[in-house]
Automatic annotation (TrEMBL):
Keyword Transmembrane: yes
Name this protein carries in UniProt: DUF4267 domain-containing protein
Keywords carried by this UniProt record: Membrane, Transmembrane, Transmembrane helix
Membrane-spanning intervals of the chain: 56-77, 98-119
Keyword Membrane: yes
Pfam families: DUF4267
């Protein structure tokens, strides 16, 4: 279970860097994937992209510097971000169902993987 959580966490770190890069290079596509309607949120795409890249790199740095125990607790704390994203999508014209499927499941994954890494 521990190895699975670690491998999946590393894959997700790479994926979140990809998502952040997509927000910088293709903001319209990225905003649609995030769950927000096109238009007024376009200026925030760059900030979201940089935040995602930072989040993905943070996972790798915490793992390299502090190990899996600290990484686990960092992932639990990082679950705050997708919870906030789900609220943002749901309150700003996006689908609540989509917000829960995408951002809610991301938060759940972070908590579960984080606890496995922190406590095992």
């Amino acid at each position: 279970m521990f190895i699975v959580a670690l491998v999946v966490t590393l894959l997700v770190a790479g994926f979140i860097v990809f998502i952040g890069t997509r927000f910088l290079l293709a903001p319209r596509v990225a905003l649609a994937g995030f769950g927000l309607p096109e238009g007024r949120f376009q200026p925030l795409a760059g900030a979201k992209g940089i935040r995602d890249i930072t989040s993905g790199v943070m996972v790798l740095v915490v793992l390299a510097v502090a190990g899996t125990h600290a990484l686990g607790w960092a992932l639990v704390v990082a679950a705050i971000t997708p919870v906030g994203d789900a609220i943002l999508v749901a309150r700003n014209g996006g689908s609540v169902s989509y917000a829960l499927r995408v951002h809610g499941l991301t938060a759940l994954f972070l908590v579960v993987a984080g606890l496995v890494l922190a406590l095992v």
